[in-house]
């Protein structure tokens, strides 16, 4: 007959091995709950709600139409006159028309842009278009301006008339820094397309540089260069 | 050495320590994997968009001195062209907008530009004529956009003497309407 060793009576405060494991898991679960429910400030910390780029183009001939084309360093080119976009006439919201329309912004507003002159923005004899992009994709942007002119026949007989224009752009990084870009007193001929050559505080440049928001990935932005 | 079970209940064997370390590392792994997935920076649900905008305008108003954050435009569009054409605002750059509505009727509008942010004093947007149609009011501050149609109430229009007033408070716009419209905040208004 085997002899059994008599176990001593244990203190009620003693921790068994299972208690230790269970306590460890309990603490880990508690930590998980704390971290998971912490009120993270998502866009606010990144300043994402304030990042924007605004482009103004003014031209001194209310009878003519001008448009801008946006080109991103990834190779994505956006022409507002393409059938990919529609403008809400009440709010100026620029909405993609098709599922394949590439966008480089969270939301966009446009004024004075028109396909056939059905929409316009004027101040006396100056016409203008304005495009404000919320949360633009980071990288370098090139902006081109095109003059679509519909001059009277006699104007054509005398040779096409150049139209003088100004442009300005502002990029706000969402935190504190503005970058201002200006084009002053340039002229453009009907049908011509020019890449805007900006003067900035750092000298002349054809590029507009948009900084990436900190700690935030913009889903709609192209990830790699698509040079086509 | 005594190979009997020790009486000390706090005794941990080598196996116990190994198990604890393994358990701890699994827990930590779970915490960090789940934690990273829960950071909602990339989520953009429509429910949070309103809150984002509201937070954006409040920040922009708080940083009135930072020109970029608060660069603002107020766009008013309506089928009531006589009202729109008589709009006047002091110390503002005003552009006239023309477009065509979905039904083919002409729309008139004004774009009022405040390049250095919304004015710091109450600024009325006046018009001599009561509009017969609703006004579409679109306010853009920084990257935040708020847009609503508002039917102007004749009584409020006469009392206030303006279509709407830009006020330097969280209310932002005081619109002559019987509706309770609070730019960037009215998602939370019942």
Topology (elements, then pairings):
The complex is a heterodimer of chains A (228) and B (190).
Chain A: H1 17-36, H2 42-46, E1 52-59, E2 65-72, E3 77-79, E4 85-87, E5 94-96, E6 107-111, E7 120-123, E8 126-134, E9 139-148, H3 153-157, E10 163-172, E11 178-188, E12 193-195, E13 198-200, E14 203-205, E15 207-210
Antiparallel strand pairs in A: 1-8, 1-10, 2-3, 2-9, 4-5, 6-8, 7-8, 9-12, 9-15, 10-11, 13-14
Chain B: H1 14-38, H2 46-62, H3 67-70, E1 72-78, H4 81-85, E2 93-100, E3 106-114, E4 123-125, E5 135-141, E6 144-150, H5 154-160, E7 164-166, E8 173-175
Antiparallel strand pairs in B: 1-3, 1-5, 2-3, 4-7, 5-6, 7-8
Question: Can you offer a commentary on this structure?
Answer:
Chain A is mainly β. Chain A has one domain (49-210). Chain A is built from 3 helices and 15 strands. In chain A, strands 1, 6, 7, 8, 10 and 11 form a 6-stranded antiparallel sheet that branches. In chain A, strands 2, 3, 9, 12 and 15 form a 5-stranded antiparallel sheet that branches. The radius of gyration of chain A is 30 Å and the shape is elongated. The termini of chain A are far apart. With 190 residues, chain B is of the alpha+beta class. Chain B has a domain at 46-175. Chain B has 5 helices and 8 strands, in the order αααβαβββββαββ. Chain B has helices at residues 14-38, 46-62, 67-70, 81-85, 154-160; strands spanning 72-78, 93-100, 106-114, 123-125, 135-141, 144-150, 164-166, 173-175. In chain B, the strands form 2 sheets. Chain B has a 5-stranded antiparallel sheet with strand order 2-3-1-5-6. A 3-stranded antiparallel sheet of chain B has the order 4-7-8, with no helix packed on it. In chain B, a hairpin with a 5-residue loop joins strand 2 (93-100) and strand 3 (106-114). The longest helix of chain B has 25 residues, at 14-38. Residues 41-49 of chain B have low confidence and may be disordered. The chains are: A mainly beta (228), B alpha+beta (190). Chains A and B meet through helix 1, helix 2, strand 6, strand 7 and strand 8 of A and helix 1, helix 2, helix 3, strand 1 and strand 2 of B. Strand 7 (120-123) of chain A pairs antiparallel with strand 2 (93-100) of chain B.
């Amino acid at each position: 007959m085997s002899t059994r060793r008599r176990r001593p009576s244990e203190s009620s405060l003693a921790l068994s091995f299972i208690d230790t494991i269970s306590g460890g898991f309990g603490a880990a679960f508690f930590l998980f709950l704390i971290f998971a429910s912490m009120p993270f400030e998502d866009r606010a910390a990144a300043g994402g709600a304030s990042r924007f780029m605004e482009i103004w183009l003014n031209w001194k001939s209310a009878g003519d139409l001008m448009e801008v084309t946006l080109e991103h360093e990834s190779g994505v080119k956006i022409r507002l006159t393409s059938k990919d976009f529609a403008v809400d006439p009440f709010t100026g919201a620029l909405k993609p028309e098709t599922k394949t329309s590439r966008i480089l912004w969270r939301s966009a507003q446009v004024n004075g842009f028109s396909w056939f002159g059905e929409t316009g923005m004027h101040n006396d004899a100056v016409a203008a278009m304005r495009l404000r992009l919320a949360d633009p994709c980071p990288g370098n942007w090139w902006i081109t301006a095109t003059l679509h002119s519909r001059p009277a026949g006699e104007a054509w007989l005398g040779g096409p008339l150049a139209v003088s224009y100004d442009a300005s752009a502002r990029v706000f990084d969402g935190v504190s820094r503005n970058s201002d870009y200006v084009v002053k007193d340039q002229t453009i001929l009907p049908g011509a397309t020019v890449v805007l050559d900006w003067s900035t505080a750092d000298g002349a440049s054809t590029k507009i540089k948009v900084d990436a928001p900190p700690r935030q990935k913009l889903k709609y932005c192209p990830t790699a260069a698509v040079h086509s | 050495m005594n190979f009997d079970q020790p009486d000390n209940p706090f005794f941990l064997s080598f196996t116990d320590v190994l198990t604890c370390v393994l358990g701890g590392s699994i827990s930590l792994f779970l915490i960090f994997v789940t934690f990273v997935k829960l950071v909602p920076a990339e989520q953009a649900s429509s429910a949070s968009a309103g809150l984002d905008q509201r937070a954006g305008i409040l920040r922009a108003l708080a940083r009135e001195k930072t020109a970029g954050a608060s660069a603002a435009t107020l766009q008013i569009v309506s089928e009531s062209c006589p009202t729109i054409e008589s709009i006047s605002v002091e110390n503002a750059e005003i552009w006239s907008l023309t477009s065509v509505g979905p039904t083919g009727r002409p729309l008139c509008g004004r774009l009022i530009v405040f390049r250095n942010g919304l004015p710091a004093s109450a600024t009325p947007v006046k018009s001599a004529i009561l509009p017969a149609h609703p006004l579409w009011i679109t306010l853009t501050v920084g990257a935040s956009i708020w847009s609503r149609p508002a039917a102007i109430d004749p009584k409020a229009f006469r009392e206030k003497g303006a279509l709407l007033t830009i006020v330097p408070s969280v209310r932002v716009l005081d619109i002559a309407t019987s509706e309770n419209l609070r730019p960037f905040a009215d998602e939370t208004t019942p």
